[in-house]
Records
---
Amino acid sequence: MTVSHTLAAEGVTLGYGDRVVVDALDLTVPPGRITAIVGANACGKSTVLRAMARLLPPRSGRVVLDGKDLHRTPTRQVARTLGLLPQSPTAPEGIAVADLVARGRHPHQGLLARWTAEDDEAVAEALELTATTALADRPVDELSGGQRQRAWIAMALAQRTDVLLLDEPTTFLDISHQVDVLDLLTDLNRRRGTTVVMVLHDLNLAARYADHLIAVEQGRVHAAGEPAAVLTEQVVQQVFGLRSRVVVDPVSGRPMVLPIGRHHVEEQAHAS
Amino acid sequence: MTAVAAPPAALVAAGRRRRLLRARAAVGGLTVLLVVLFGVALVFGDTVYRLDEVVRVLLGQTVPGASFTVGQLRLPRAAEGVVAGAAFGLGGVTFQTMLRNPLAAPDVIGISSGASAAAVIGIVVLDLTATETSLLAVAAALVTAGVITLLANRGGIADTRLILIGIGVAAMLESVVSYVLLRAANYDLQVVMRWLTGSLNNASWDQVGPLALAVLVGGAVLASQSRGLGLLQHGNDQAAALGVPVHRTRLLCILAAVVLVAFATAATGPIAFVAFLAGPIAARVVGPGGPLLLPAALTGALLVLAADLVGEFAFGTRYPVGVITGVLGAPFLLWLLVRSNRAGGSL
């Protein structure tokens, strides 16, 4: 059911006010794969995601979706292809999960907002995929952090877009819920071919779940490619200014970063 | 654990219908209440007329005494209460929804004060007609909204800062109103009360006409933006991601809401806290997540009618409607401020 879409940034310069955050950045999102954008705080990774979601118009260059300039395409049309989970979305007090998820149908509804059987199906499916069916009638503000995040993802799923952008979807979640959310995104990618692009803080989770890793440093793509090729001790040093060992994760076979820090220099030297 | 598995889509549809039904019942209930209260406002007064006399007046027949008291005094007063209340309610709930904060009502953030100040200057100083005053009030309210937005937008839009700046602007403009009223040579207490708290004492068909037109036009614009407005509750980013043209929606909503509040203020004065109270009350009546425009308009109308009746007849002295709504609104404002430190919820 999924059509593969191409999404790329071509020489994009982005900024807020007088400040340029991202300068002439080129980036291609591989269709049908999971891409993670990593980088130090304030390196511009969320800014890049905002530009790819049509939230921030580029100063120069363009973001291209299926060969067309994203910022010249009507927002409703974009919303049928691109879904977004922002970093801290808000919900009106007391809104039920099912109603929240139903709002994801907005880009598919005409001006008269006739609610169709297809809309109900999409909402039911989104609830099911995120295991929130049992929570459908509960108010969003009474859910736990992990449940709430799944409800928000369900809203993005009800939008039925082939590309899903997520800005730090695991923030404020404990480790097991972080894994839950990333497993869920992987399910979507495997079963439906959804292209996933997410900004992630945790390098090890990024390396484990992403097919394609983009390391951003001061508004530029420092390295991009398979996690094993991107996540090296050298790149971690250059992008995060952190000395580390990179080993093979015994669970997934992906690279795994062990930070060194100031207090464990001796052990590191000893081990090598 | 072994519940009969209904098709999930049917469950979703059932839940949606249940909530829709509740919202419709709420709107129905509010409408019935408004009609009853409107009847009460026509029947009761210093002279109490029978319902059939009132109906005959409404049908255009001549009833000695009632034709004047009901037809010329009570009817325009009640009608003005309804349209002004609806205008305040619509304007208030629009701002509160758009800025995701019940404190963001136009009567809290200085937009009503802008209209008041202009109207007071127009009437007391410039000696303008009612229509000219309305237009001046609309212009001043738009300028006030523009100034607040500009001040708040320095370095990115910050909705909380907009509210704080608005409260400051409101205080400034209200002192302008007090100053002009104090300097005016030939003011009387009614005029002063109208512009300090709002009152229906000057109600006339000349005022109801333009205001009703503003409610129709403004209400239609808001209705056309209603779904986008609802999605703005999730934040501008989320709304944009769902295909809402955020800037256009916000601009249209601000324009419509400001025009509504300004017309109402020009007619009745700033009836305290109606714009501020209508939305949150309507939200509680309708239930979470429902559409709020129509319920807030009905609630605003109800508030003004009820408060006017209470102010006229509940005490030995007559109080203007704004005094009563002010007494209701102030504790709610305090409660919101206390609560907002604990959790930052929207409507």
---
Amino acid sequence: MTPVLPSAALASAARVVRRVLAQPAAAVSVAFLLAITVLAFTAGLLGLDPLEQDMLAMLEGPSAAYPFGTDELGRDILARVIFGARTSLTTAAGAVLLAAAIGVPMGLVAGFFGGWRDVALMRVVDLMLALPGIMLALALIAVLGRSQSAALVAVGLTGVPTFARVARAQVLSLRKRDFVTAVEAFGATSSYSMFRTILPNSWSPILTQMVVLSSVAILLEAALAFLGVGIPPPTPSWGEMLRTGKEYLYDAPTYAVLPGVALTLTILSFDTIGRALSSVLEGRDTAVPQPRAERA
Amino acid sequence: MKTVLSTVRGVTRRTLLGSVAAGAALALSATPLLAQQVQGGTLRVAVLADIANFDPHQFSFVNATLIKNLYDSLIEYTPDGRAMPSLAESWTVAPDAKSVTLKLRGGVKFHSGGTLDAEAVAANFKKASDPRLGKNLFPTMSIVQDWTVVDPSTIRLNFKNPVPERQITDLLQFTTIIDPAGIETVEQRPAGSGAYTLAERVVGQRIRLTANPNYWRPNEPVSKEVVITIFSQDQAATAALESGGVDVIYGGTARSASRLKAAGYPVLDGPGPLVQVFRINSTRGPFRNAKFREAFNFLMDRENILRIGYAGLGQVVALPWAPSSPAHDPGYARTYGFNLDKARELLRQSGLSPAEMNDWKLTVNAGDQPSVAISQLVQQTLRRVNITIELDMKEGSELVNSMLEGRFDALFGGIGNIQKFPSRVATNSIYRTANNPVLKDPHPHPEYVDAIRRVDTTLGSGPEVKAAYDHLNRTLIQAAFGIPTNTYDQGIIVTAKTVAGFTLDMDNMLVLRTTGFRR
């Protein structure tokens, strides 16, 4: 029942990172995501302006002044792709955190208490799963209006059922384990058991889901923007650039292609890291079957 | 022909019989020449949307592909705005301008075999004056008191008040005649007298027309068959033209038309474009301030709006008129050109605080790429005069409801009927003089309502008419609840190099009866 020591947790996390980075595809993906994240959040320091219009340089191809070319308003496509990464990454991060913040407690409560709580919460989850994610997001945006926070909430809510189910499955598998029974025998409250005993031992699949859902969230945010209900212009967004760029495919092919490439690589990177993380975490569980609380 | 009509107008401005006969003779004499230049065949046309229905009184743009091919109007306009006979062989305006007598063409048969006569025309006037059935024709009929069938080939329209000549011809040109036997079912089944008859329709895919063997215009239609294919993507239609899959694209985007034009494909833009207008709800926020509104006359970067939104195809304008409108005055576009210094001065004179100036949103038609682009251009321009606003993206019914209920501060929207009698601009929601859905009643700009009334009641063709138009133009600029930026053509025609012989329609509808392949 003693909490996991920080140093032990750090050492464990470092081991996981090392094993993930040992996989070449995952290492490249991490490097790409790090690079694009750093670029996205420091682009202003590089003097890039995604809103500056140059009416004398509309729909131009790549040049020294504009390495990715310009859009229909003479704006720098490179700047817009980089700032578009900021939009995608912040929306995805926020959405995944929101989904986890709602979904994980839902799953914990449903799995831990069972009975009517389990039935009620799981029917809510079933209802959410019955609606295609994009439909649910479209309906939410119709209510909330078009903004980054609306997109974040819409994308986030579509991820809630996944986290709820994963967390519930973890609780059901851990609920009758000895270390949980022991904690309860010592008089631990339900919330202590759920959040201090079971949850710390459920992070592996939840973490994997967070990484995988990041790619889904980025894709969904881009899809909403492509359908014209994403973040309103002039804020750059990859999906919005794809939507507009396809209108100018003949005049400026880079306009649609480059945001598409950035989107694909980012999703691919998250997916690759998610797979690597999953394999590493599953491997660790096999190697060290004891839950952390018992080890401590 | 222009000289003939001008002379006639100068001498007997109300009696057009002579001019009409001359016009008819010239129109008919043009046909053999055309026949020498083009030959028939199967004309393949690409459009980007299916029709809404077959009712020619519903002027949805999607219906513009068929209206003038399945039906005929009472009269037609030449591209420069001269009235020409069609189903009405002649028309005579009464000396008091309170009625017009139409002499109908003899021997015209509907596709059903029925004969065109005054009773058939009367049945159409009855439909047009019914608010439920009249559709776009209904507002135009507001000047009509009643009608009298004089004899089987003559009908007289009586007006509530004296009506300017051009307003009468607008009404006649607007009135397409439906076979009375088919009026009840016209939405589902065409019932016209036009050059083509409907042979086949596969909803969402294609429409096939075949030549009307009993058509009253000699040697027309030139092409015996027309196949209209509906493409969902502009690029696909463009590729079809380039690969020889279609002969004509109607209603494609300006950007594609511009590119095809550069590649040597003939591009035709008719005399009836729309005008893009920055619509201002002068009952809300800072737009209640007249000086603030006036500043927007100078804040519109019209040249770049035309370039970005419409690939440069069109003209910059500061007034809501097409070049063929009698009120068109290109001088205003020069006087009220893009000028940030003048705008800043007017903004200063408005006395509004920066917070007040920023307290509005620009609503954008998210489904219309030109509107999205030009709205972003305006947003950026406004930043240069320290006005920071957000774009409020809307589309579909949400946008339409906002537009028609006045739930917006400002937005770009095209307006039509700008090539005809100037007061017809008041058929557009923002320019309505009564029951204005945006500005509401009582109209907040009574000077504009008076200016329209003056145009409507100034008869003749002398300097007093010009003065009424000038007065309206000045009023529009000062009231500044609509800031026109440019003309643009919704019905651009791009053709293969082998196709020729187009008749340009005043409303930019597709007219194919004279179109064929070069010999």
